[in-house]
Amino acid sequence: MEIKLSGKASNIAPSMTLAVDTKLKQMVAEGVKVFGFGVGEPDFDTPEYIRNAAIEAMNNGFTRYTPAQGTIELRKAICAKLKRENSLDYEPNQIIVSSGAKHSLSNAFAAILNPGDEVIVPIPYWVSYTEIIKLNDGVPVLVPTKKENNFKMTGEELKKAITAKTKAILINSPSNPTGAVYTEGELREIAEIAVENNLFVVSDEIYERIIYDGNKHISIASFNSEIKDLTILINGMSKSYAMTGWRLGYAAGNEKVIKAMSSVQSHAVSHPSSITQYAATAALNGPQDDLKNMVQEFDKRRNYMYGRIKAMKGLSCIKPEGAFYIYVDISAYLGRNLCGIKLGSSLDFAQTMLEKGHVAVIPGAAFGTDSHIRLSYATSMETIKNGLDAFESFIDKNIE
């Protein structure tokens, strides 16, 4: 019997980050000691007051359907947060909550794309961007960026990528995988081009609270009413509140766009978990001390990892300004043998490092640049120190 899948599904690549994490967990289950720098997941527990709110929701019977767009209490809390932290004025009908920021992105592209519409995506990009766009009948237009610009797309690079089919621009600041943060001037230039060409800007701001060295996150929607109307702001609870498994993301935008996203969501999943929504409301309205402490710890890990990698022979990287990743250039090792295996790609490097060196990293091919790997420092300092020791030792002893 022939199993006939859709062309759309067949054209979607599985997530390399989750594949590496699955292999890592399998090795650990088999008793192998592995150091994981793969999945971007804070190693902190969800703050206690948020967990207590979830328990309260269950004990109070808050376990039934909510509106597809999300509870009014949570949407009001998001509006208050956007006003307080981003100088943005939104009404609850301009907010939708979803089952994670990834789900918010999917809803956004479902709402704005017609078959063949193009979305401009700077390289390197987060692994799921291109696949989410393709799943929603769009065409990712990939724009290479330069290391000297901290892998940020310039206005000139953006202009060259625009065609008659361009529908949207996707930006991510702070960036996964590079940790780069767009400045106000850089965002204003992108905003002017978007308005001039009447293009949506899908702005993924999930790492906005995880930022260092006095850098400031600025939402592109905050400049004026024209760019605000064209922006679909994506955010969520996973990174800032260590709520990855809770699955709660949200989007803010033009009321028509949000209404369309709500219609899509109502048929796909109805709404996010009622208990998670209750907990997220508590998170946004509650004390933020846990977040500040978490960022301080990430900063220590960032500085340590950056210093170690920069000192390693054959490797180079830019210092991340936000998020919790370091994007490492391994091009000096490509074409050489590692543990007897010819390194023709970042995937070869990552597979050899995991299977032979017992260190999990993500190949840069997942992000559009095959000359790099990504390491996450969303893990303990002990794991970082011991893992980097193992990483460096394995290369030194086995590279030819």
Secondary structure: elements and pairs:
Elements: H1 7-10, H2 16-29, E1 35-36, H3 48-59, H4 72-86, E2 95-98, H5 101-112, E3 118-123, H6 127-135, E4 139-144, H7 155-161, E5 166-172, H8 184-197, E6 200-204, H9 225-230, E7 231-236, E8 249-252, H10 255-268, H11 274-285, H12 289-311, E9 316-317, E10 325-329, E11 337-338, E12 341-342, H13 346-355, E13 359-360, E14 362-363, E15 372-376, H14 381-398
Parallel strand pairs: 1-13, 3-4, 3-5, 5-6, 6-7
Antiparallel strand pairs: 2-8, 7-8, 9-10, 10-15, 11-12, 14-15
Helix pairs in contact: 3-11, 4-11, 5-6, 5-10, 12-14
List the keywords.
alpha/beta, Aspartate Aminotransferase, domain 1, seven-stranded mixed β-sheet, 14 helices
Overall description:
With 400 residues, the protein is an alpha/beta fold. It has two domains: 7-45 and 290-398, Aspartate Aminotransferase, domain 1, CATH 3.90.1150; 48-285, Type I PLP-dependent aspartate aminotransferase-like (Major domain) (Aspartate Aminotransferase, domain 2), CATH 3.40.640.10. It is 42% helix and 15% strand. A seven-stranded mixed beta sheet has the order 2-8-7-6-5-3-4, with helices on both faces. Strands 9-10-15-14 form a four-stranded antiparallel beta sheet. A two-stranded parallel ribbon has the order 1-13. Helix 8 links the parallel strand 5 (166-172) and strand 6. Helix 3 packs across helix 11 (274-285). It is globular and about 60 Å long. The chain starts with 6 loop residues before the first helix and ends with a helix. 48% of the residues are buried.
